[in-house]
Amino acid sequence: MEKIKNSTVQQWIPIEDIHENGIIKINKNKFVKILKVNPINYNLKSDLEKKTILNSYKILLKTCNFDIQILIQSNKEDLNQHILNIEKNTQKKENKYLKEISQNYIQFIQNLNNSRNSTSKDFYLIVSNQKTENCNSIEIIENDLREKYFKIKECLSRCGNHVIELNNKDDIINIFNSLLNTRKFLKS
User: Fold this and answer.
1) N or C terminus of the chain: which is more exposed, having fewer CB within 10 Å?
2) Angle between the 138-158 and 47-63 helix axes, to the nearest 10 degrees?
3) Run of H or E including 37
């Protein structure tokens, strides 16, 4: 009977290195950069604003002539600290009506927290650069990824989104840890 050999995470994830500037070396020829997007709430916009936002997205799709991967990560939220803050503020209130509203709100938040329907989402864009024979310089790759970042940032900023270039190696490692260790990051 053949023994099954256990593989480590490092053996099956294609990441070779994470540079201090946030560029991730996937293999000898491919580099990627992760951008975090803090989105707007489209549903709260007026019809005219929605039309403008959609036109800005069209411009993004037309001007970005490179591959973009979209990663959406859902995170369960623990609302216990929020509940404690409301309870503390409720004790300071003298108005019975405000206390009753606060108690009803606390009950609503507790039900939401217990049913695990409270989540937040993190949005990431991943851009890549394929190294070619005539492009062996890491500086050229960095400049290409930086240009892609600025192009995306400019287009998404027109829509009201805030785009952040992840340069911190620890932040990138934390993103990979949260993706690979979902049970650890989910509150039970």
Assistant:
1) N
2) 160
3) strand 30-38
